[in-house]
Amino acid sequence: PTAANYEYEAKSASSERFTKELARRGASERNVTFLYDTRVEAISVTQPDKATAVDGTTTGTQKPKISAIHTNRGITHVPADVKVVVAAGSWTPHVLALMDLYAPVYPLKGYAMSVSAIEAMKANKQLQPRDLPSRIVCDEYMFTSRLGDEIRITSIGEFSGWSTKPTPQVDIEFRRQAAVQFPQLRDLIQQAPTRCGHRPFVSDGVLLLGGLDTHDNVYVSCGPGSNGWKLASGLGEIIERLDSGQTAE
Q1: What is the C-alpha to C-alpha distance for residues 198 and 125, in angstroms, rounded to an integer?
Q2: Which of the residues in the chain have pLDDT under 70?
Q3: Which of 4, 90, 147, 184 is exposed most, by the fewest CB atoms within 10 A?
Q4: What is the DSSP code string of 158-223?
Q5: What's the confidence (pLDDT) of residue 57?
Q6: Which of 7, 82, 76, 66 has the alpha carbon at shortest distance from 38?
């Protein structure tokens, strides 16, 4: 190494645990209904009524509204006074494309694995807690964080469409680099399943946030990928303020 960055205040977190806990609390405390394994396949839009002026021209300032969302599990009807928020991460362009809208968001596939610190010390009696990462560790290839027993190793940004399956060659390199960084965990690294997910990548890092100019009842909240789940609660609050008129567009 030629340099080191000591992040003395760095804390660890798990986006998976965060999301599951948010879902649990939303269902039990906020009366939110989650539909799992549900794909949006089509969107119905109601066109606004246009009035005819005395000179024969048409007038009207209303915009089209989403009236129904068609999924593989049925149709969800959208009442006239309800707003729709598209906060679908990397799938945002898929959803908006159903409305003939383009969103410059691209799926950047990340690779992750988790290794148990307890299992590591059971497998190797010579290992001590000080031999395992206790904080964020990062280099050119890998980013590792520690949360309780979980040692989470992440790396790689790959453009390969919307597939969430590891690319074999990339997965091999991912494990090789992880073992280089943590040779004491080599056996567990080779056994741990690789999990892939998408970060919504935008070229300039700017959030896509706010109401659509083209539709009357649609908001978008998407990106940037590396900070999306950290910002999610705040972005939701901004959407709420926009909808209630507390915040200017």
Answers
A1: 37
A2: 1, 6-12, 50-61
A3: 4
A4: E-BTB--SPPHHHHHHHHHHHHHH-GGGHHHHHHSPPEEEEEEE-TT---EEEE-SS-SSEEEEE-
A5: 60
A6: 76
| 207 burial level (CB within 10 Å; 0-12, 13-18, 19+) | middle
Is-contact 199 157, C-beta < 8 A? Answer: yes
Q: Please name which of 198, 203, 179 lies closest in space to residue 189, comparing C-alpha atoms.
A: 179
Q: Distances from the Cα of 156 to the Cαs of 5, 113, 245, 249, in angstroms?
A: 21, 12, 41, 36
Residue 108's closest CA among 165, 171, 157?
A: 157
pLDDT in tens, 131-140: 998 888 888 8
Half-sphere exposure (Cβ direction) of 183: Cα atoms closer than 13 Å = 1
- What mean pLDDT value characterizes the chain? 87
Query: How many Cα atoms occupy the beta-carbon half-sphere of 238 within 13 Å?
Result: 17
Q: Which of 51, 19, 53 is nearest to 36 (CA)?
A: 19
The tokens describing 69, both together, are 């969302």
- Return phi, psi of residue 84, to 5°: -110, 130
Closest of 192, 200, 148 to residue 174, by C-alpha: 192
Give pLDDT tens digits for 93-104: 999 999 999 999
DSSP E strands in 39-83: the ranges are 40-46, 51-52, 58-59, 65-71, 74-77
Nearest Cα residue to 97 out of 175, 47, 43: 43
Residue 247 CA from chain centroid, whole number: 25
| Single-letter amino acid, residue 150 | E
pLDDT attached to residue 9: 62
Residue 120 phi/psi, 5-degree rounding, is -65, -45
